[in-house]
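Go through this chain.

——
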Amino acid sequence: MDTKKKFNLSLGQLTIPIIAILILVVFNLIRDPSFFSIGITQNNDGNSVLSGNLITVINGASELAILAMGMTLVTAACGGQDISVGAAAAIAGSAFVKILKSGDSISVGTVILAFLFACVVAMIFGAFNGTLVAVFKIQPMIATLILYTCGRSIAYWINGGATPTVQSSIITAIGGFIPGIPVPTPVLIVVIVAIIFKLVFHFTSLEILTQSVGINGSAARLNGINSTFIKLLSFIVLGVCVAVAGCIGVSRLGLINHETLLIDIEMDTILAVAIGGNNLGGGKFKISGSIIGAYVIQMLTITLYAMKVSSTDVKAYKAIVIILLVVIGSPVVKAKFEKLMTKLRSGKAKETVKGAE
């Protein structure tokens, strides 16, 4: 496939999320021209930081964007979704806090150790989900329902049912702003995670192997690809993303609350992948589409709140808009649209030929 075809394919897959972003941008500019204005304010620590609705959207979607990257890989390889990411993030967050509270003070080394421990814990639970899916051939949504049901209870047990606080300038910087840098730290973490994914896909065959397994697992096995390992690996990678998101969530609040940490983020993560133009049945995927999908969902949420929509009604309005986006981006609608465009192009070609005669 030449570069031009690859570009057209990528652009086609990103059409829906890009259009959704543009519609929300235009709507907000008409509704309130100052909606996207960015200013500089002083935070509680006296540092100059960026502020405004746009910064709120980009910052607030950080955990969702990170989870969407990992979910994209699982969806592409397994043709299903992990509905336990919120509960798993609570477990990772509890493990993170457990190490932070183990010493008298919180140093950089302690934070790194706590993060690595949270990653290991999340990867183990990811491997558990992946084993059920890859080895025992259980449908992903059913397999991850187990952890979805009991995950927050496990998070509760890790810290003995308590909700300990973690007071440290380092943790505050992770969840807020690094002194001297006006951009929210979670946004920088999203960029780092996205770059890591890009580098992994560039220097390894993970992207093509994942797509091959997702498109046709049997054919992939015949070509020497270990589909079981690829599926298991996708869940382990998602586990790392879960740990990162969980640690950000804890750092934002300065405490671990197993009941509310990233609550209900599972469905938003799946929707971000869908809005990003990825096939929920597996196969070809685009990580950038899922990232844009996360920002679409967050911008929609902030827009509704800016319109004074009550929190109880926000979910209903979000559901209506997201249903429209998903339906428009569905394979059936896409096929009909492509068929219509083919007819229009053939009609124009015939008119050109007649004009030449």
Observations:
- The first strand starts at residue 39 and ends at 42.
- The chain has one domain: 58-308.
- The beta strands are 39-42, 48-51.
- The chain is about 70% helix and 0% strand.
